[in-house]
Amino acid sequence: MLSMLQYVANGIVFSSIIILGAIGLSLVYAIGNFANFAHGDLMTVGAFGAIIGGSFLTGYVPGTEVSIVGIPLSFYLAVLVGMVVATVVALATERLVYRPMDATPIQLLIASIGVALAYRGAIQLRYGAESRTFDVGRGGPIPIIRETIGVSVTQRHLVIVSLTVVLVVSLHVLLQYTTLGRKMRATADNPTLARVSGIRTSEVITAMWIIGAALAAAGGAFLGLDTLVYPDMGFDVLLVLFAAVILGGIGSVYGAVAGGLAIGMAHELTPLIPRVGAEYGPAVAFIIMVAILLVRPSGIMGDRQ
Amino acid sequence: MIDLTRTERTVLGVLIGACILLAGLVGTGVLSASYLFYLLALGGMYVLLTVGLNVQWGYVGLINFSVAAFFGIGAYSVALVTSPRSPLELELHPIFGLLAAIVVTVVIALLIAIPTLRLREDYLAIATLGLAEVVRLIVLNEQWLTRGSAGVPGIPRVTEWMPLAWVPFDSANFRNFLLVVGLVALVFLIVRRIHRSPWGRVLRTIRADEDLAKALGKNTYRRKMEAFVIGSVIMALAGVFYAHLNLFLGPGDLDPINTFYVWIAVIVGGSGSDRGAIIGGVVIVAILEGTRGLVAVVPADVSVGPLRLLLVGALIVLVVRFRSQGILPPQRELIWPGTDRRASASTDGGEDRE
After folding, report:
1. Biggest distance spanned by C-alpha atoms of chain A
2. CB B109 within 8 A of CB B124
């Protein structure tokens, strides 16, 4: 039996991953105006981009064996590669599939299921169905933390949580203090009004896909660092992402952060419920989601129906 | 039969051609009659699933990503109640299996529909995605109930009573084929009847414009609930049939990919069209069996499973993009027979999508 604190520590790590995925999902919901069922698989694309691109870089870029916080530099570069790959894939999908369609949100939703299957099929076709791990060496729990409060936290966990904080704070600064951020918030709030005010909404939509895909890729790479990289990894967390977005309120970035934290924590605290195993984490997320839909469908921070 | 549209004639031609081809394959011994009937029985099962999803998506516009789960609920209800090897050790008559499947399905469908049907359409999509995951987790982990990944063997056959011993090619598969033909015919007649009724017209109004239906004083929440439950029960019936066809049930039978095969069948066949749903169901089996043939075509290092996944995904995108009304969109079939004086003239593309 692990201590309560240990579950909370695991929860913070998993929440970080869910927050990164949920922000992108919520942005597409707000600005693109449809439920993107391919977002989980976009995380997979990012994770594979990172693991394949990263191992490629290690051979050609000198100095990648230098470690920062016990993780080799090659991993940080790999995450960047993954973010670029996912951004390119997302923008290509938007140009080829979603933009020319001029369809209702429901048709886009169904098309996004097709996109999700196509991503997964393509990855599996090229790289097989087996699991991979990031080559960052074996890092055990950090001794000091273990001795003082009895919680095992690895250097990987520290890297995941601190990079997530950096990414979320950067997004906050972007949204609140830059012109692009103001345009994005305006478009999310009322696309028609934004367009008459002279905002080029198509540029805003492009920016949204770039941000959403880059964060999803980081989330996917972190999920792969924490566990494994395999073709179904993104689809397996899609339900948890949706639960976080709905809990936070569809379309609200800050809601997605709060919802991601709550759902990620609930997911990891599941074993504390008597006679329920850790494998029921997604089920607990699902039950919270249905309860929110019954009581407050607009979520904690949302105002849209 | 006289005034068929061009698409109808093409579809009819392709179907007749396929029948001749299959008969030829059996005649020359390439395909055994027993296996052909097994494939056709499986095709009938997909037709049932497609008709069920069509009631939800095609009639009203409800997005259900739990097709595989409702199918699994039906199949597992039968397996647990009737099999001598099930952990419940009830070993009841198959009729109780059928009843259990219907009751459990109705309860679960209501539980998922009550919180989501008042909200925007996409909430139901997300909630059913979750339901499918939860059902899969329960089947996999609750060993005391479902035997987990070991599966439930020993499900009884239900076709012994058929007086068919005189038929030269009589086999279990042939009897199952007849059973599914009967089921499909029954379900098809019922849904077509209710689709043409005032109830069905309200559903079509909701699909086109829910606010309009509300403004006309229709209880849209109630109608959507009814359509969702009816569609789910039809999917569970497909599961009941599958349990008695396969005689063994494991968690692998609830693979979520089946949900998307059925989605393709509905949107390819023509959302909202009952006969389109039947064509779509047949198309799925043709695709699934046809892609087995891919093994001979693609290089040895390419595996067929992921390739099929990729093709299915691309097909969904292409159908939504280029032919969102499907092969056989609803046309005159929605008009009560005898009331349409210009039947031969109206060949345009059916009702508008929202």
Report:
1. 61
2. no
d(C-alpha B326, C-alpha B329), whole Å = 6
CA distance B71 to B259: 9
- Please check whether residue B137 is in contact with residue A279, taking contact to mean a CB–CB distance below 8 angstroms: yes
Kindly report the backbone phi and psi dihedral angles of residue A71, in degrees, each rounded to the nearest multiple of 5, phi listed first: -110, 130
Half-sphere exposure of A250 (CA within 13 A, CB side): 24
Q: DSSP assignment, residue B335?
A: S
Confirm if A34 and A105 have CB atoms less than 8 A apart.
yes
Q: Of all helices (H) and strands (E), which one includes residue A72?
A: strand A71-72
CA nearest to B126, candidates B186, B64, B70: B64
- Residues contacting B122, CB < 8 A, separation 6+: A34, A35, A105, A106, A109, B63
- B324 contacts chain A (CB < 8 A): yes
- Mutation to test the A interface, candidates B131, B316, B325, most A Cβ within 10 Å: B316
CB neighbourhood size of A178 (10 A): 11
DSSP, collapsed to helix, strand or coil, labels residue A141 as strand
Cα A127 to the chain's mean position, in Å? 22
B258-295 residue pLDDT tens: 898 898 888 888 787 888 888 888 878 877 777 766 66
Residue type, B164: L
* Chain centroid to CA B165: 30
Indicate the length of chain A as a whole number: 305
> Which of B137, B147, B177 is CA-nearest to residue B249?
B147
Angle at B239 between CA B128 and CA B103, to 5 degrees: 70
Q: What percent of chain A has pLDDT over 70?
A: 96
Beta strands, E only, B6-136: none
Confidence band of A300 (pLDDT split at 50, 70, 90): confident
Residue with tokens 């516009």: B61
With an 8 Å Cβ cutoff, is A127 touching chain B? no
Q: Domain ranges in chain A?
A: 23-235
For residue B260 the two structure tokens come to 């998307």
Select the residue of A111, A125, A294 nearest B307 (Cβ to Cβ).
A125
> Which among A118, A290, A294 is the nearest to B310, CB-wise?
A118
Alpha-carbon radius of gyration of chain B: 21
**Can you tell me the distance from the alpha carbon of A174 to that of A153, in angstroms, rounded to the nearest whole number?**
31
Helices B67-82 and B257-269 cross at an angle (nearest 10°) of 120
Q: Would you state the pLDDT for residue B72?
A: 94
Q: What type of residue is A205?
A: I
Cβ neighbours around A66 below 10 Å, total: 9
Mutation to test the A interface, candidates B108, B123, B258, most A Cβ within 10 Å: B123
